[in-house]
Amino acid sequence: MPSSKFEPNDDILNFVIKKANGLKGLVDTGLENIPNQCIQPKDQRLEKSQIDNQESIPTIDISNFDDLSVEKSIQDAASKWGFFQIINHGIPIEVLDDLKEAGHKFFELPSEEKVKYNKESYNASESVLMFWSAIGEKDEKVLEWRDGIRHSCNPQNDSNLWPPQTRNQVLEYQKWATPLAKKLLEVLLKGLNVNEIDESLEPLLMGTMAININYYPPCPNPSIAIGFRRHCDMSCITLLLQDDTGGLYVQGTKGDNWIHVNPIKGALAVNIGNSLQIMSNDRYKSIEHCVAVDSSRARISVPLFVNPSPDSVIGPFPQILKDGEKSMYKHVLFSDYWDHYFSKRPSGKASLDFAKI
Ligand code: OGA
Ligand code: NI
């Protein structure tokens, strides 16, 4: 139960964010209609008519990772869809189940416990983690229907500061997922004629990692709320674990159609982020995606973001431009790009403009 009751005239940001009740706490008050501050403008909702059941993103069996046909499927999926699912990736199902379970345990804590992990604002250089319900809360008055917690998974970060409910499960998952992410990046780079990820490339491609746990509580009016607005990730690649609730949609090839990422037990979704789109000079696509919410079920998802280090300079690989291909992007400092993204929150594809020539 939330520690305090939400009254109609209460400041929602105070209740949800400052007191760390989260959207979960709001739902637990038994409210029948969502507050005005959670009603999305029409262009941010996902209309049923936009959902396309004809197209679907590929599912790739990677048990024979080194098979040339598997490599090609991954490279093709990254070029055409920017989003695909992988099965038989070798991460034990218990590791995935324990991680989702840990997410439930954390978000079901009383707000007095969760508030310890609060941070005033979203800031990439924070070494620990934060509990937040609205990125860009300063200038965005409409709350997404989501609670979330971020674990920065880098040597300088102290995992002892993470919640005891999630720490071991996140670390265990990271142990399995890091080599998988590296292998996926290697296959993707091979498709660009860039050699293996050696020490010079590692900071650029896998300089920092973060594992978030997103919790989408059930929503009384799902059609006018959104769990996660349409956006592109800033990462090189993102690995996403989702439960079987469903609700993740990616932009299809027709432009205004949205495709459901059907939950597959044991699978991980993989998507290309803006950084790799830039480095690949648009060969690989960072695709817009969003999350709709469910009226009866809470959903857990766990994205692992594999990002350049803040001091990396990102731009198209020289190997791609050597035969005279026109560069679509300038070289930018990743931390400048990151700060721009999180201060301006450019929606979807516009988030690439910062680096466009
Ligand atoms: C994200 C994201 C999708 C999901 O965290 O960037 O797109 O299913 N999450 O929660
Ligand atoms: Ni995303």
TrEMBL record:
Pathway: Phenylpropanoid metabolism. It comes from the Eukaryota. GO terms for molecular function: 2-oxoglutarate-dependent dioxygenase activity; L-ascorbic acid binding; metal ion binding. Keywords: Dioxygenase, Iron, Metal-binding, Oxidoreductase, Vitamin C. InterPro entries: DIOX_N, IPNS-like_FE2OG_OXY, IPNS-like_sf, Oxoglu/Fe-dep_dioxygenase_dom, Plant_2OG-oxidoreductases. Its cofactor is L-ascorbate. The keyword Electron transport does not apply. Residues 200-308 form the Fe2OG dioxygenase domain. It catalyses: (E)-feruloyl-CoA + 2-oxoglutarate + O2 = (E)-6-hydroxyferuloyl-CoA + succinate + CO2. Its EC number is 1.14.11.61. GO terms for biological process: coumarin biosynthetic process; response to molecule of fungal origin. It is an enzyme of class 1 (oxidoreductase). PANTHER family: OXOGLUTARATE/IRON-DEPENDENT DIOXYGENASE (PTHR47991). Belongs to the iron/ascorbate-dependent oxidoreductase family. This is feruloyl-CoA 6-hydroxylase. It comes from Solanum tuberosum.
